[in-house]
Structures
1.
Amino acid sequence: MKKIGLLLTGIFMTLFSMVQAQTVSSPFIEVTGTSEMEITPDEIYVAITLRERNDKEKLTIAKLETDLKQILKDLSIPLEQLVLNEAYADYSRYRKVKKEVITSKSYTLKLKDVNTLSTVYERLDKMGVEDAYISKLNHSKLIEFTKENRIKAVKAAKEKAEYLAQAVNQTTGKALEISERENYVNNMPSNGYNYRIANNVAQSYSNVGGNSLSESFSGDDSNISMAKIKIRSAYFVKYEIK
């Protein structure tokens, strides 16, 4: 039994040495492939806050809501694209004597293109809306674009591995490992598209180039630009080489 045990141990050690030697001797190459993509959003989410105020006469939330819905009707924007986020009220001192309840409501309006956005901004400005901004950019096929960009990153890794292997007169074999290093989607607008608590929309709006609303939308739609959604993917791939 002792001899059999020693024999099995010897066989095991031999097999282990062969496998280890084979593993060590297998050449490989490790590369990282990246891909970046920019897409124009077809879904623009605008946050709008309506707040009661006293001009010559008190503008109530009901009146402001009616005006906002009229804008949507005039621009053929379905009312379903306007969603109420929250409503609240607070007490405000008026001339240090009277107290009144000031009510405000916050909405999210979904738009499809920058030209409609420009018209909405102008109409909000005429309403005297003081708080509105682009809260998010999106694309209806964002998942498909992200998948496409990931595939491009892996293909970029394969191409890199192939030309590096050719540099030493070798070729790549099968992929031994694929792991994700980065998958980043930036769909938040730049600060240039935001405006909050200003005298009015037009005075506080600025695009990426720093122009005012009236300058940006001066009748030439070709000058209107919208921030792009940026997608970045990176994959680490390990190939055998032969």
2.
Amino acid sequence: MIGNPINFDKKYFSKNRLWNKPNLDIHIKRYLKLLKGKNVLDLGIGEGHNSIVLSELGYHVIGVDYSKKALEICKNNCSNSIDLIQSDIRDYTIQANKYDLIMSRNTLHFLHKKDALHIIDDIKLKLKENGLVYISVFSTDEPTLQFKRNHSDFKTLENNVFLRLSNNTYSSYFSKNEILKIFSDFTTISIIDEYSLDIEHGKPHYHGLIKYIGKK
């Protein structure tokens, strides 16, 4: 593992919810019918934005997150049972051939790219045959990339990776072609390179994201 995990506990403690109420991502909802079973792993579950809805639809969800406060919020807002595990996702061992869907939404870009790619490789290896993967990561159009290039607290490394000097954390940015290459041995169901307005938290702001759904 490279650097420290980013701890969101301070942000979660400042509000009852950091994000809007649970709402299933349209990119997941559209392809649920392709799933052969009901077992889901959510790496970086946070407050359970997607997984709470999946659980209420009858899916068996295991959620992993580093933030104890986020997991507490998720538990308090879920009417059904989700198995919640407090762990750095870089330390978590994925059980092989168990999951029909493994997702990591807006989490992997808060890691050094080498760590993110190691996790993706593990997802690909451990996912059930014909299972789906959903990955959402910051793209190279993400506005914070340019901010970090011009800020003294960030050191620009190769391959669109940044080190934050004040807390020894890393962040990474991906291109569409890079994600397609990573998943070249999967069947691509959907890949979206979007630049969109985020009104889920804080003041309205824009994000550049790559959203990938693939089948093993």
3.
Amino acid sequence: MALTVAIIGAGRWGQAHIRTLSSLKREGLVGRLLVCDTDLEKLTDLDPEVDATYTTWQEMVEHNSVDLVAIVTPPQSHCQLSIDLMNKGIDVLVEKPLGFSESQAAAVLAASQSTGRSLSVGFLLRFHSGILKAKSMVASGTIGSLHRIQFIRHSTRKAPSQGDVIEALAVHAIDTVCSVQGEVEPQRLHISRLATGQHNNPIQASMWIEFPSGIEANISVGWDSEIEQRQLNFIGENGSIFVDFNNHDNIKLQREGVQNIIPTEFSNPPLEMEWRQLLNAKADLFPTAGATLRGARWIEQALLEAAIHIMQKQDNIPTIERTINQTR
């Protein structure tokens, strides 16, 4: 029987979930689709596949037998909302970040275990056809030993007034560079550049992550950029692989000065693939509990180092090289 699915949060990304689920409902993969948001304006002009709208999630779950809720609300609400919904006997898909610390993530995972409800964390790039293809090619030795990974996510979108680019964009980067190596635990993280907005919140950041194998990952994320860039690049001893997040059909392989176009296995958008797997009761690509804790742990470390950079800027202290290990 098709599930009753609810979305909490009908903002920019919530609308993307609604469009995806509306399409899947027309295929018969979703039974009923409910949407909740505290802002009435966001509940107007929704897809006709939406069955009902609510301004409080409590009212929504009181009047409906909801199987699965997707939490697409501001990050600060993710942790408690996830716990509250699982305590109501509802499975949860929560957008990243699950929490801002390892202890917050652990509390949500503990609630999942105690209630027996399913908890899935929405790291979209785990479902990207190009990244999955590149990951398999790296694992098979197509470019020899992997030396370095580059993650670039520059957006021309104006920085949110209170947004934090580490919580919003770097969280994807950290999860991706670990997961494509088989869920490897980093050894060290270092922020080499940080730009802040009018409220002293990080809006651009560059960081290095080192792994025990000697592989390094360079992450560059930011809003207010001159050009839009969404890339994941793998540099090996015998060549390189380039993935464009906007391209789901193929990736580029360069070896010995020759560039080849390599088709991917599928071309469906990542959000659709994420929902298809979830609705079919699969969890192959979602992060495990261990991977979820690892991501929260290293985002917490990145936020700590960012706070150090900001304090140094405020106090006019020259920035010195630091690593996370030195600040523990």
4.
Amino acid sequence: MFELIFTFFALVLFLFALSIVWRINSRKYISSGTVASAYDAWTQDKLLERLWGEHIHLGFYPSERRDIDFRKAKVQFVHELVKWSGLDKLPKGSRILDVGCGIGGSSRILAKYYGFNVTGITISSAQVKRARELTPLGCNCNFQVMDALNLKFEDGSFDAVWSVEAGAHMNDKAKFADEMLRTLRPGGYLALADWNSRDLRSYPPSFFEKLVLKQLLEQWVHPNFISIKEFTNILRTNKNSAGLIVSENWNFYTNPSWYDSIIEGIRRPFAILTLGPLAIVKSIREIPTILLMNWAFRKGLMEFGVYKCRG
């Protein structure tokens, strides 16, 4: 019953917000500059940070406890990916590169709980500024503005490379993989999580699914989506990869994040209201895309891929 009521409520909001969305310029991907501009804006208006905390990525909801707090689920996701990928086997002081670090939430966890020396990079100068503001003295994190497709580091500079939900913004997935693996030392660890489509070559999208994918691409500056299988093959055939690539679909563990990301606005209404009337409009603008993401992931049109390999 609750799900039916929520679905009806969400549909009403969707239709209302959609009328607004289509009157506002979309965030269509043009270049890395459009990605930077979008994240600069999201960071400067502080709406996402107020609602979701220091982690913009999805959360991890264990099978035995699906009612975990949204912000705690985001922290849990970091620990689960660390454990699954083997990063917890690295000694303290290991050099970690966080590609697409956002405002540094994951970087700080990696430094605080695992004793790593973390370098976070993002295309957004506003995110770097905010990440530095949020990082306490003594935390072994540093943040730089850098394009993930042109990393300014020597080959083999890092003991591990970490990236969460950044690859969907890359217009060249092979170059994205190549730059990460190039900067990874031989025997180092790659831990990556990303939004993927299903295999659209083997299972072409319907007309409606094409419309959904178009909206998901154009509202959140994504150039294209590829499948877990496609990106796994990109990693497997890379010259800097040891060849043993493990990938999984974590849809089951992450899907509750979509409804929770909307419900946070109900749980924390003052987080929006204190930012002024414009914040309300901005928050409503995101609801249609979140609902479409939820539908796409639940139906298997989209998949949450996680990947691990050794350099």
